[in-house]
Design brief:
- Helices cover about 25% and strands about 25% of the residues.
- It has 8 helices and 7 strands, in the order αααββββαββαβααα.
- A 7-stranded antiparallel sheet has the order 2-1-5-6-7-4-3, covered by helices on one side.
- The longest helix has 17 residues.
Length: about 240
């Protein structure tokens, strides 16, 4: 498949040309942006068990990563400062490495069942302060580091995207079995998955067990370590 290259006259290359295509921004959409966390924003964060964090590397390569824990896992240190625990993962460290190189971050907080979301932009640092980390422990396991975000912009985002996608509507839920498992997808795209169904099922079951231990053990074995051509562990 060849890449898409638009004709020069169809490429929007500056902000003025872009804004000509749209109606002016509504005053309320501008006024709603705040530089600190209001009472409502703080209440939203305390209810949220999930967020996405967007970062960029020093050379501008973008990344978005999910973060999830029991509701209220993000600590509100004051009206302009948040702390996000970094739980055990696959040790790629994409988000953390990016923040060390480029502190600008964007956060999207999501609450199951809510169509509204909360957007926060700010500047982040990675810290290993034991006093802070101790308050983020789960089952007596504190994270190795936390992401501390100084808020520069915060505002609620409307429900249109969630309404259009029917994200929380069970009638629109898709059957996960209609696609291969995560393990099979990764192996198909790399070293090749085992052809034996029993062996493949064992890998899938091991991944599920790894999920159960993910909040406790860094890089909990997912079963891929049993596959000779695949040394990696997830999550």
């Amino acid at each position: 498949m060849d890449g898409y290259t638009p004709k020069p006259e169809h490429r929007i290359a500056d902000e003025a040309s872009l804004r000509k295509l749209f109606a002016p921004t509504h005053d309320l959409a501008i006024q709603k942006c705040r530089a600190s966390l209001s009472e409502h924003a703080q209440a939203f964060i305390r209810r949220s068990p999930f967020l996405c964090i967007g970062t960029q590397s020093a050379d501008g390569r973008a990344d978005v990563s999910p973060r999830g824990d029991p509701a209220g896992f993000v600590q509100i240190l004051d009206e302009r400062t948040l702390a996000i625990p970094d739980r055990p993962g696959n040790n790629r460290l994409d988000t953390l490495v990016n923040i060390v190189a480029n502190p600008t971050v964007g956060l999207l907080f999501i609450i199951p069942g809510f169509d509204d979301t909360l957007r926060i932009n700010g500047q982040a640092i990675v810290v290993d302060d034991p006093d802070l980390l101790a308050g983020m422990a789960i089952q007596d396991k504190a994270p190795k580091v936390a992401i501390v975000v100084t808020v520069t912009e915060v505002f609620m985002h409307c429900a249109k995207a969630f309404r259009r996608s029917h994200l929380w509507d069970p009638d629109h839920f898709q059957d996960r079995s209609s696609m291969p498992s995560l393990v099979k997808i990764i192996l198909d795209d790399t070293t090749g998955a085992p052809e034996d169904a029993k062996e493949m099922r064992a890998l899938d079951e091991a991944l599920e067990q790894g999920y159960q231990n993910a909040c406790i053990d860094s890089c909990a074995p997912c079963g891929l370590h049993r596959w000779p051509a695949w040394p990696m562990r997830l999550p």
